[in-house]
Fold each of these.
Amino acid sequence: MAQRPVDPAEAFFELGRIKLGETDLSGVLTRVSELAQRTIPGAEEVSVTLMRQEGAHTAAFSGEMALRLDELQYEYDQGPCLDAARESIVVSVPNMSVEERWPRWAPRAVLAGVGSSLSIGLPIRESVLGALNIYGDTPAAFDDDALTLAQTFAGYASIALANAHLYDSTVTLAAQMQSAMQSRAVIEQAKGIIMGERRCTADEAFAILAKVSQDSNRKLRDVAATLVERAARPASPRRDRGVSGHLP
């Protein structure tokens, strides 16, 4: 059963009210592809390409045909979605059967049932480029009104994706900083234990931890955490052997 079309104003409102704390970048990408398919007249299938330093990949898609055609572009290193993403431009293919710009890819698109397509660049962040790819099953599936609507939709989508990417990056950075602070704290605790038992300096205590880490091929934080954990256990006459009894 086909989903009902979405009024453009409703789609733009939907993109603008995405709550980033309730979803992630993947969720936003999926919503963008779903809304585009239901909002833009002539859209049979839709996908979103993201390009990072390591290469391009399809981050969301409404159907297997869109995914397959995107992946062929990455394999051949040619096609409208790559051009649109790299140059942040609109690439229109009114009739795929006579398209000559991508001689390896276009015939495969025709065989897959694509008659026309639109790819619109999405400048998400400086380090991330993207494209909204819209596939039609007939030639000339997208008239001027559809093209204008697709460009407007892409503008709203770019803002939503940029915000989601920034939020995702900020959350990741915060988690990394929290982990780093916790690691620093446990290392300082372990140094304090060694300094108390060895009557040594902070630098000497760190050197002891570093040597154990290297000799045991374990992370410094893990060695420190083990020492702190063992030091917190009730001491017994047989176990109370100073640092050598604590360090693994």
Note: Residues 237-244 have pLDDT under 50 and may be disordered.
Amino acid sequence: MVGRDASVEAIRDASQVLVVGRSPINRVVISKIVERSGLRPISESPDTAAKALRALVPGAIILDGGADNKDCDNLLSSIDALRRASGKSLPPVILLSNRTGTPQSLDLSTVVDAVVAKPITPERLQPVIDRLTNR
């Protein structure tokens, strides 16, 4: 069924993970960790990720927040709209941060489900991916 809402037209694919960050190197590292979980990464910059979200609803989203956790803020409203349309807080969102803490303690958006502190390592990120995607 296709409605006026763009999120209805998007295809949900639980096997794909949208990896968003300004640094191409970080996106490659994150994508390799996503692959280790048996999922398929889609790597985008914050500027192009909104277009990808209109075409596909991934199984999870990983945001590299950059130095101040703000690099991907322009996507938060789109992600929030997807989650409201799903009725379930899906897809889950992981923020990679230079600071440690919970989304609440870091005063982050309510769309962020988990925070993983940098440096990005498989030992830190993969268990969170597996837990949030039920793998």
Note: The first helix runs from residue 6 to 9.
Amino acid sequence: MGHTLLHQILVADLVAPLMIAEYGDMRTRTSAAAHLGDGTWIRADLLVYCEAQEREGFVEGAPLLAVEVTSEASRVRDLGAKRDLYARYGVPCYWVVDLAPDGVRVHVHTLRGGRHVEQAVVGRGESVRLTEPFKIEIRPDRLFSGIPPWRGPVEGAYMVYENGPDLPAPQEAFEIDSFLRRWPTGAEKVELENGHPVFYGRWDQRDVEIAQRAYPGRVVRLDQRPGAPGTMRILPAASVTETMPQRIVDFDPVGG
């Protein structure tokens, strides 16, 4: 998974404080994949989970804490649809590290009544003491004190060269084995939500046309205006008869 240098620094700044706060059988992992449910595989910037959930290469089930560091492509989804997705699968704690013009802000969400409620937003000169999933003080000025001015370009996500199994029919959901090793190779991050591939990056009409050829018969949906950073989703066809390539769809301003 490729990210800017700044993104990687922000993630790295969190690792030691979270590992120090761990207790019992807790574990912390960066750039971690989690299998939340059938057809839903996410890749979080940082996860805290129980040792029993650890599998070879991924975490099984809802982690104790998911942390996302925003990028231009992920910010809207991290603060909206991704937050709701984590709540749907019972992730009790969700933090979003957001780089704002005035510095880093951390949005702290707690699961209440089946939805994530924003417990606190802390920025420059502020702090909050938390007790879940462990005792920790979030003070952005201390956690992220060495932020460089250079952010660097978004790199392409690593995907191996061999193709996976044959694609499912256009009206069917994807499984993880048929989703991996598929276009696009230039995505910032790739995920599978309810059997729908989600690609983070900067997409325009040309990418939509390529996606329509790569995933024939499916609906290609941009969650922002063409050329702007954000997400592109590959959705099932509306019916079995909808097998012809889709037209370039209008972007979805709601997204998620």
Note: The longest helix spans residues 5-21.
Amino acid sequence: MIKQLFSYAKPALGVVTALVMSASMMSAAQAITPEEIKAKGVAVVGVQMDQFPWGFINENGENDGYDVEVAKLIAKELGVELRFERITGQNRIPLLTGGMVDFLVPSMTITPERAKVVQYVLPYSANDITVWAKTDADIKGNEDLGKFVIGVNRGSVFDPVLKKAAPEGTEIKRFDDDATTVQALLSGQVDAIVGSLTYGLVIEKTGNAEKYNRKYKLADNFQGMAVRKGEQEMLDFLNDFVTRHTADGSLDTLYKKWIGLDRPKLPTTLEGIDFTGKQ
């Protein structure tokens, strides 16, 4: 059930592999400037479709979620058709650098390591790294983590954050993805989990909202769209998009709709990250 909540629904005809989709779209995704996207009449955008509520397939088999609506807003401003490439956490950067998508709207955490490979746009979203546990669990800060068995998605940005924060000797159990991590908490395999702020939406949909709650924010988790290195015009366009729609409240409205919380004030500078493309 948890797996279904993270993917929300599957397309009626099944999931086409990323490799096949990438090959079929390669010729359509070579644009590197807004004007070239306008000229071809279609924007090929990479969006993760297995991460409710950021991007998922709804009960009607349609792309839906916060990132999907952001991508639609971008395409509307460009005046072009929107074509989605359904990315995963593993293939999103290769699909971008390989030219299979024009840009990413990926719910992707901004990190200095990734910034060496892709060009980040100004943050458009946030998904705090959060500690979740049973409502009666006495967890108020990092020092309390050592008293419990903590679960985390292996290979995610949450894992090293937890490892750094937890007291030495804390028992940490690692799981293959977000869905199995949340399921481990609900089934009692672990006492608490570290992960996305939006784990709470998944827990709520399982009918367990009163049994589990958010204990505290472990770390910031700012998310950014991404373009290829050197694509200055595309970067400038998307930076302007984020700036304008932060000012007019559009991104705040979408965030509130999908996440259920006010969108936090997001930074325009981060250590180790160049959002200008000129450094």
Note: Residues 73 and 241 are 9 Å apart (CA to CA).
